[in-house]
Specification:
The protein has 293 residues and is of the alpha+beta class. Helices cover 27% and strands 27% of the residues. It folds into 2 domains: 3-117, D-amino Acid Aminotransferase, Chain A, domain 1; 129-280, Alpha-Beta Barrel (D-amino Acid Aminotransferase, Chain A, domain 2), CATH 3.20.10.10. The protein has 6 helices and 15 strands.
Amino acid sequence: MSLLTNLNGVIAASATVSVLDRGFLYGDSIYEVVRTFQGRHFGLQEHLDRLRQSAEHLYMEVPWSDQHIQAEVERTLQQAPWQESYIRIVVSRGTETKISLQPSPNLQPSLLIVASEISPEPILSEQGIHLVISERLRNDRQALSPAAKTGNYLNNILALLEAQQQGAEDALMLNQQGDITEATTSNLWIVREGVVQTPPADVGILKGITRYFLWRILQTHGIPCEEVILKPEDLWSAEEAFLSSSVRLMMPVNQINEYRLPQCPGKITRFLWEEFLRLMAKESHSFEKILPV
């Protein structure tokens, strides 16, 4: 696997962290995942905004400016011999001098950037994926809020493993009230009677950056769309469905539990895919124009 790391400014093929790093010991860290398109990072500022929001949830300080983090991302990408990259930005609260749940005062956070090679051209799956509604509930907002993108993903990992044990590729997770929240690493969208629907933030989701851009596209083109609380029974009348995330962008859904979607990928899914690629290309060209000569 082609990989580059940048740990606190040192770029290498691999990196190591201390066994006393709080991100390693407790998942006491935050992160963002960005991808490149046409060689340029896409949506980085939106991801950095969310990184700082996650830090607030964890009472954590991010001591570097957005400009510094962006410069380190770009410095890392410049050394990558491949065309397109998956980029993971991780901020750990820091490294302890002894094992203790209580964070030590004056800890120095660590900044890790990992870049790895991805397919040079995004492709919309014609096959789609099979989802199951998990019996494992999404973390409650009053416990560990899904609105914070933290290094603690055990809730999602268990749901994913259990879905795979049932022959599915991913899981949809409910909250304590029985509302659909999201998949293990993606936001859910369905189309019913020509209306695009997605769960609202207050059911307990991570507000995806791709979700944000798709919402902009829907509104720009006047496609009926709404944030709505969805129960499992609402899914059985969906004509099409898809997941959205920052790396694979959009993934059509062909089946949820035993229900097979009539369209996969559907007409609206295909339209949003094409418009999303146009948006990414436009943003990439705008980024090129502001680069120093």
